[in-house]
Amino acid sequence: MKKFxxxxxxxxxxxxxxxxLEIGLFRGFSRKELYAREKLHFHKDxxxxxxxxxxxxxxxxxxxxxxxxxxxxLMVEPGEIHRVTSLGPNGCSYVVIKEKSYENGTMPVxx
Length: 111
Hints:
Blueprint: E1 11-13, E2 22-29, H1 31-37, E3 41-42, E4 48-61, E5 64-69, E6 73-76, E7 82-98, E8 107-108
Antiparallel strand pairs: 1-2, 2-7, 3-8, 4-5, 4-6, 4-7
């Protein structure tokens, strides 16, 4: 058994703390925090899931915009180029799950 906790607002686990998959909870994530970290990318050999708990977010997936709102669940397939592009006016709370977790599992895309 291993318990993961990072801080009071957000939690996540992955290869960096010995988890074979990545799971993250981001509560009240703001636009400023988003733009500092989210880059266009894809994953070679695993799916990524987004579950919206509260608020809204917009993603680009293979050049198409998609709006997700509270209780939406999205699965991004391996090889699909994606990134979160915007959050609702009050931010967004969501869970992200990646089927695998290993260093360099996220492949950046140059525009």
